[in-house]
Structure formats: structure tokens, C-alpha cells
Fold this sequence. Notes:
With 234 residues, the chain is α/β, with parallel strands linked by helices. The protein is built from 7 helices and 7 strands, in the order βαββαβααβαβααβ.
Amino acid sequence: MSSSKGKKAIVLGGSSGIGLEVARVLSEAGAEVIVGSRRGKLVETIPGITVDSVDVLDRDGLANFFQRHGRIDYLVNSATGGPRAVGPFMSMDLDGFQASFAKLWGYANSVRIGGGHVKDDGAIVLVSGYPARKHKPGYIAISTVGNAVEGFVRGIAPEIAPVRINAVSPGLIDTPMFVHQGEDREKFLAEGTAHHLIPRAGTSREVASGVMFALENNFVTGTTIDVDGGALLS
Length: 234
Ligand SMILES: NC(=O)c1ccc[n+]([C@@H]2O[C@H](COP(=O)([O-])OP(=O)(O)OC[C@H]3O[C@@H](n4cnc5c(N)ncnc54)[C@H](OP(=O)(O)O)[C@@H]3O)[C@@H](O)[C@H]2O)c1
């Protein structure tokens, strides 16, 4: 039986992609799951999951959200936060570069405002991404933000112990974050992973399994768990 049975979990950014799959796996494991996202509804209906509207960049709204839902065992945040800038740094719109940090601000807000709602034996997971430690041309903003997320996790872990906090770092994952359709999508995912040790895009389910490990293993904190098909070694 999963140790998540009977636990209460909040999944921010859980209306789509990786967060949605984490919400589904937690619910299947017998946890009570509350999903928070701006649109306040899931991209597909999953019975038994509560959905509540919240913007992780709105600190007052986030405080009200956590007040509404009380004490929790798990806090997962996979919200992208906003748009990401892609392209070479020296010609990039610097406002776009700065705006890419919305992901970090959303994560920081949720730990600061939601951390106190997590029980002492509970756990937090944030989602970084393989560009944090594997730079690709055009990914400077994403790399820098990912590094910041992983550094934040290492830095905050001693401060919030005994609550545990970890990052999960996905490789290229087939989620709605990528808007390409049809053959364009297949080409994008195939080309983006061709040199990875496992040359295919990952699934949200595979990343959710890494998140579950970080939530359920009571001896893991302050670290980053890579679920990336060997992208870092490509
Ligand atoms: N997919 C990949 O290849 C990949 C690779 C490495 C890392 N990652 C990381 O994994 C995480 C999840 O990505 P994904 O692929 O699952 O993306 P996704 O399918 O686009 O889902 C993003 C989720 O974030 C929510 N969200 C965005 N901004 C928000 C805000 N300001 N407040 C509240 N919720 C917000 C969205 O819901 P609403 O629009 O309703 O707010 C949605 O539920 C992200 O941090 C991403 O950077 C993804």
C-alpha cells in the first residue's frame, strides 16, 4: 500500500501536464488532492480531485488559497508561472529574460506562504528541468531559472527541516507546454531527444513517479532527482 494513502496534497500547476499527472497518481494512491491553477479546471476531468483557482504570482490570493485548504502533508509546485524567453542572451529582450523568472517567484511564493501549512513530517517538491545543468543554445533563460530553482531547494532545505523539500528535474516531456501539433510535434520531440541516452520524449507519468519518490521517501531532502532519459549525459 502506498504511504500516500490518506495524505492531503496540494498540487499547484496541476491542471495540465506533469502536475496533472502528479495529481492523478496521488489520487490513485488514496491521497486527498487539491489542484491549484489560474484557470481553475483540469484539461481533463478526473473524479475525486478538487480544483481551486489561484495564481502563484498573486501572494494575497495564494495566502487565501492555503487558508482555505488548511494543513497539508504534501505541496507540489510545477506551475510554469508565465512565458519563457528563448534565444541567445546577447540579443534577447531583457524584459523577457527577467519575466522567465516568474517560475522561481511562483515557487518561492508557494514555499514562503504555503510552507507553514505543511506538517512537520510532510514534503515539498518543486520542478526544475534538465537545461539547469545541460545548456542548449537558446536556453539561457530556462537554464538560469532552473539553476535558481535547484539552488533555492538546497538553500531552503535546512531552514524548513524537518519538512523535506526536493526538486525533480525532467528531461524533454511530451506535455501541453509545447504547442506544436501533428508531424511538427513528433519532429520537435524526436529532434530534441535524438542525442539523449533514451532517445524519446518522456511522459508525465514517468516524471510523476519521480515526484512520488521524493514525496514518499522520508530520507531524501535538499536534492534534485533527475528523470530525464539521460539528457545530462548526451
Ligand atoms: N514539459 C517539459 O519538457 C519540461 C521539461 C523540463 C521542465 N519542465 C517544467 O515542468 C513544469 C511543468 O511543465 P508542464 O510541461 O507540465 O507544463 P504545462 O502542461 O504547460 O502545465 C503548466 C501548469 O502550470 C500552471 N500555471 C502556469 N502559470 C501559473 C500561475 N501563474 N499560477 C498558477 N498556475 C500556473 C498551468 O495552469 P493555468 O494555465 O491554468 O494557470 C498548468 O497547470 C514547469 O515548471 C516546466 O518548466 C517541463
